[in-house]
Every structure is written in C-alpha cells, then in structure tokens.
Amino acid sequence: MRRRKLLAIGLTVVMAAASLTACGSKKEDSKQKKIGVIQLVEHDALDASYKGFKDGLKEAGYKDGDKIKIEYKNAQGEQANCQTIGSQLVSDKCDLILAIATPAAQAVANETKDIPILVTAVTDPAAAKLVKDNKKPGNNVSGTSDLTPVKKQMGLLKELLPKAKKVAMLYCSAEANSKIQVNLAKKEAKKLGLDTVDATVSESSEIRQVVESLKGKVDAIYAPTDNMIAAGMNTVSMVANEAKLPIIVGEEGMCTGGGLATYGINYYKLGKQTAAQAVKILEGKSEPKDMAIEYQSDADLIVNESAAKKLGITIPEKIKKDAKIVKTTKK
Asked: What is the pLDDT of residue 331?
C-alpha cells in the first residue's frame, strides 16, 4: 500500500515538473521574434543577401530557432506570388519583414504600414515609392541599397573593349531598379563616346531571342543588376559569347554566370549590413522611419577568365593584378 502511495506521489511530481517545463517553453516561445522573409527569385546575388542577413543576425546573438524564428518565402520571380506571400506574412503577425528585391518590397509594403520592413537589393527605395526620402524614410520601411558603381562599370567596358562603339542595354522593362541603372549607364556611355540601344525583355522566355537579335548590331552588352537577366545569365552568356559579344555585368554572380567583368558590390556584406539594422529594430533602439537607407561604398573588380578566353580578349595586366579572377559556373 505504502509502495503504491510512493508511486502515485512520484507520478504527481513528474507530471508537475513536465507541466512547469511546458509552461516554461511557452513562455520562452512567446519571447521569440518572428521574422518574415520574402525573396523575389533565386539567383546568386539575392541568395547571398539572404545568407548575409541570416549570418549577421546569428553573429549578433539572434540565431534562427532560438531568439528568432525566420519564415522564408521565395516568389520564384512571379509578381502574383509576391502579393500572396506579402499578405501571408502580414497575417502571420511577423515582428519584422525582410524584402529582397524591389517587386518583393513593393508587394509587402502595400500590405502593411505598421510592421517594420527592411529592404535589400533595392537600388533606389525612394524612386520605387517605398520610402518618402532615402535619408529619412518617414514610414515603416528602411534598409540597404544595391546601387552599383555604374560609372566605373562603363569605364571598365571602355578599357577592356577600346574599339567598341555601340552597346546594348539588356534589362527587364518592368524592373524599376534596372531602369535607374540603365539611365545612369547611358549618360556615362555618352561621355565615353559610346552609342547605346535598348534590348528589353518582359519575361524570361524572351531572353534568348533578344540576345540573338543583337548579333552584328552592337559591339558589347551591358546588363545591370536586373533580377530576370541575372536568373537567366547562363542563357544570356551562352548566346552572347557564341556571337562574340562581351557582357559587362552588374555583380559577381552574373560574372560567374558568363559575364566578362564588373565592378560590383558584395551582396553577402549587404545582407549583413541589413542584419545590423534589423538588430536595432528588434532591440527597440531605432525605427525604420528614422533609419536612413544605407549604401555600400566598396566595389570589387571581377574578371571572368573563361569568358575572356572564349571571346579572345586579353585582359590587360594592370586590370588583372587588381581583379578577382573567376570562371564561368554552369547551373
């Protein structure tokens, strides 16, 4: 009888302890911040931004599954998906949302004026109507810009291809980021005595045809950090390099995708820069409305050795010694 009583008491103690543990878990879970992430499409630059963001948070003590829970969604390049995901993240009552690329940022910004939103891989948030002013956003949106050194990129084109006279501007006509960069590139090209022509696509299936149409009409191609072109870079480079059309691109991932060269920002570092902003928001030290859009001051000179060889272009030693040399990586 006494043994039964002891067993009963033991079970009661165990159940009480389990109950306390469960309560403790719920209490701990209630402290966990939920971060929603919406990424427009998969390609090297945007993927690097997201990785940098996660790593930056982890280094600051915000490991996914511990202090925070990250809900990651990829729109696979579809605007309709962006809208659906944006609505879902708002319904899920996220404490913070990261939007990677302009269409993703615009979609989620249209869904909430209350939840803090950080954007990255957006060239000009003010021009995209995401903030009132890049220096003082004035609303629930802030983040980092991927504005590239277009002037240096066009100068690089002229240095590597001194005989070039006409350059095609290859980009998606629906991307605001791309239009900004192309307009800057046209101004710089004019200063360098280069003529330009637009080569626009509205969907990825048009890329091959548009690039093929440039053969014999231009001497080179300039492709900014355009998400559709970046995602289809293997197709772009396959057609362009066969036609002996060198491509000066906007960032490293497009270079390893077959572009000849670039002066590009580091998207992984950009993601970490955005994570530092997120930490300030999570810790209540700042709000997006008072956080200026941040930029990256450094740019890496990158040259694709594989593309240069295929095109029969000799890279000058003065460029090669300062460049990061890469090779084409097929996917």
From this structure: 64
